[in-house]
């Protein structure tokens, strides 16, 4: 019975890997960074920057019930920025990182002890621009064998490691939203309440936005609520277009 269940899980994950790679071929530019250097438009120049570029790892695996789940962290309360907030493993690009996937995998190893060799990177989503001028690149990876990973939090950066079902970010349950405004544009920030092992977490802002997008891509359906993402997340060019309308 266990062997059959394991085989079913492997088949489901393999199907997911193939679908995400197909998504990557249809929607992504495989040489975005190289072409960004050659392009002179503001969006591409910003994307090419390594000093203000970061990547996060959206590491998916199958739970005991066959549901897709994602690893999250609660940032250390001692950190100078975003202390105590829920985040995806990740951080700023370093000169020795080969690419965005390399950044995400390195940071995941440093923060939660995830060996990069255990993760199968399958696609990289469009970068997100923050108001502070940082470009955040979501990297989707698959962990084929959940039991191969023993979480080892770096206590200097992480207070807790937990996982949550990916599908929850498509549901209008345990969710609330707040309307914000920036440069005359109104948008929504989403907050998801979640409890794991007796601990309560709030997943919100950029992390929630990334996971809503990932869940939509993986499950091939939109969220059951109005999203209204911040327009500046799409880059300087789209914001300029908005201001000119």
From TrEMBL:
Segments of this protein annotated with the region Disordered: 80-100
Highest rank taxon of the organism: Eukaryota
Keyword Disulfide bond: no
GO biological process, one term: coenzyme A catabolic process
Coiled-coil residues: none
InterPro entries: CoAse, NUDIX_hydrolase-like_dom_sf, NUDIX_hydrolase_dom
Domain Nudix hydrolase: 51-207
CDD domains per the UniProt record, alphabetical: NUDIX_CoAse_Nudt7 (cd03426)
Cofactor(s) this protein requires: Mg(2+); Mn(2+)
One Pfam family, short name: NUDIX
Molecular function terms, GO-annotated: coenzyme A diphosphatase activity; guanosine-3',5'-bis(diphosphate) 3'-diphosphatase activity; metal ion binding
Keywords recorded for this protein, A-Z: Hydrolase, Magnesium, Manganese, Metal-binding
GO CC aspect terms: cytoplasm
This protein's name: Nudix hydrolase domain-containing protein
Organismal lineage: Eukaryota, Viridiplantae, Streptophyta, Embryophyta, Tracheophyta
């Amino acid at each position: 019975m266990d062997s059959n269940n394991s085989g079913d899980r492997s088949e489901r994950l393999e199907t997911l890997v193939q679908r995400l790679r197909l998504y990557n071929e249809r929607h992504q530019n495989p040489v975005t960074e190289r072409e960004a250097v050659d392009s002179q438009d503001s969006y591409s120049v910003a994307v090419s920057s390594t000093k203000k570029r970061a990547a996060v790892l959206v590491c998916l695996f199958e739970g005991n019930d066959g549901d897709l789940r994602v690893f999250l962290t609660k940032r250390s309360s001692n950190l100078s920025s975003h202390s105590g907030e829920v985040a995806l493993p990740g951080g700023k690009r370093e000169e020795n990182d080969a690419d965005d996937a390399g950044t995400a995998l390195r940071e995941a190893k440093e923060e939660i002890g995830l060996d990069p060799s255990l993760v199968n990177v399958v696609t990289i989503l469009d970068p997100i621009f923050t108001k502070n001028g940082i470009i955040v690149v979501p990297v989707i990876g698959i962990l084929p064998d959940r039991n191969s990973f023993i979480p080892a939090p770096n206590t200097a950066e992480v207070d807790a490691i937990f996982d949550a079902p990916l599908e929850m970010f498509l549901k209008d349950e345990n969710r609330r939203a707040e309307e914000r405004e920036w440069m005359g544009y109104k948008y929504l920030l989403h907050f998801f309440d979640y409890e794991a092992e007796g601990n309560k977490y709030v997943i919100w802002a950029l992390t929630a936005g990334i996971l809503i997008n990932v869940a939509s891509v993986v499950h091939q359906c939109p969220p059951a609520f109005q999203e209204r993402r911040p327009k500046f997340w799409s880059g300087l060019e789209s914001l300029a277009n908005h201001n000119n309308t």
